[in-house]
Amino acid sequence: MLFKSDINLNLKDAEITYYPEFFNASEATNFFKNLLNYVKWQQDSITIYGKTHLQPRLTCFYANNTNTYKYSNITMQPYPFNDDLLLIKSKIESHLKVKFTSCLANLYRDGNDSNGWHADNEKELGKNPIIASVSFGAERVFNLKHKGDKSLKAKLNLQHGSLLLMQGETQDNWLHQIPKTKKIIGKRINLTFRIIA
Ligand SMILES: O=C(O)CCC(=O)C(=O)O
Ligand SMILES: [Fe+2]
């Protein structure tokens, strides 16, 4: 296989696969630089439990249709995909034999940026959504915890050029997060490809 050691995390009630070197280092660095410059990064205010605050990261939403993505009381309107996003999307699609419509991009500017515990279970994603999540730049910790059985947890480092695939009942049964870190680290870009039909 092209992709060094595809790892099935083998978690209960989930289907998660990690491809550490989906993109080689030079491809990944090239995408990182382009995305940093050409994605229309914005910082939205979100409302959680009645409190409004700025999201602790920058985001942007892209799609090949006009369907919006709603979460935490915000509605994201899509931009059309740019060339780099189309190249990344098509490489993932040909490997997985799945077509994605949409991509939520995240920029973690430093260790103080984060993404709190959540499941990607918004209704526009449908039942058992497939989510392909690509990482470029600084390596960050990705935590998982089971919604019902508090003893079930997992942690992995999402490396430069990696792909993490979540599908099946993963979002029904598990939460995930990118925690803050006190380490001095650089920027990280994450792209989550989704189907919003
Ligand atoms: O940055 C990551 O790896 C996770 C992003 C994420 O969970 C999301 O956008 O829903
Ligand atoms: Fe997520």
Automatic annotation (TrEMBL):
Where are the membrane-spanning stretches?
none
Question: Keywords for this entry?
Answer: Dioxygenase, DNA damage, DNA repair, Iron, Magnesium, Metal-binding, Oxidoreductase
Which residues belong to any copy of the Fe2OG dioxygenase domain? 99-197
Q: Which GO terms describe its biological process?
A: DNA alkylation repair
Q: Which SUPFAM superfamilies match?
A: Clavaminate synthase-like
Biological source species: Algibacter amylolyticus
Pfam families documented for this protein: 2OG-FeII_Oxy_2
Q: What's this protein's name?
A: Alpha-ketoglutarate-dependent dioxygenase AlkB
